[in-house]
Amino acid sequence: MAKIRLMNMLFYGFQGIYEYEKEQGAKFSVDVEMVTRDDKACDTDRLEDGAVDAASVYPLIQDTVEETKVNLLMTLAAKTGDRILKKFPQVVEVTTRIRKQAVPIHGPLDYVEVEVTRSA
């Protein structure tokens, strides 16, 4: 197996439990870690032997975060992982972390983060 990570991607989305969050939107930071079925591509140096092209995964993540309307960050993280597993059969596990800085919490806080792992 091999792990491929896309770290600290920045998107603007409209998720949240409050109406103003859905209307105004907010910035989200996203990390995705994918585990491949095997590491054959490490030896052959060929994408078609089970590697993952990060440039192909990025737009799928971007579309999911920017276009999916949900209340909970954990739901968004789960949907992101599910879409990756569906489109990339060489991926057997996906961990998605989503951070949101602008949250309706009254007190000092850098961000709220959720992490969801999905498996094929």
From TrEMBL:
Family stated for the protein in its record: Belongs to the DHNA family.
E.C. number(s) listed in UniProt: 4.1.2.25
Upper taxonomic lineage: Bacteria, Bacillati, Bacillota, Negativicutes, Selenomonadales
Domain Dihydroneopterin aldolase/epimerase: 4-118
One family name in Pfam for this protein: FolB
Coiled coil: none
Role, per record: Catalyzes the conversion of 7,8-dihydroneopterin to 6-hydroxymethyl-7,8-dihydropterin.
UniProt KW Lyase keyword: yes
Pathway: Cofactor biosynthesis; tetrahydrofolate biosynthesis; 2-amino-4-hydroxy-6-hydroxymethyl-7,8-dihydropteridine diphosphate from 7,8-dihydroneopterin triphosphate: step 3/4
PANTHER family: DIHYDRONEOPTERIN ALDOLASE 1-RELATED
Molecular functions per Gene Ontology: dihydroneopterin aldolase activity
Reaction(s) catalysed by this chain's protein: 7,8-dihydroneopterin = 6-hydroxymethyl-7,8-dihydropterin + glycolaldehyde
Designated name of the protein: 7,8-dihydroneopterin aldolase
Signal peptide bounds: none
UniProt entry keywords in alphabetical sequence: Folate biosynthesis, Lyase
Alphabetical list of SUPFAM superfamilies matching this protein: Tetrahydrobiopterin biosynthesis enzymes-like
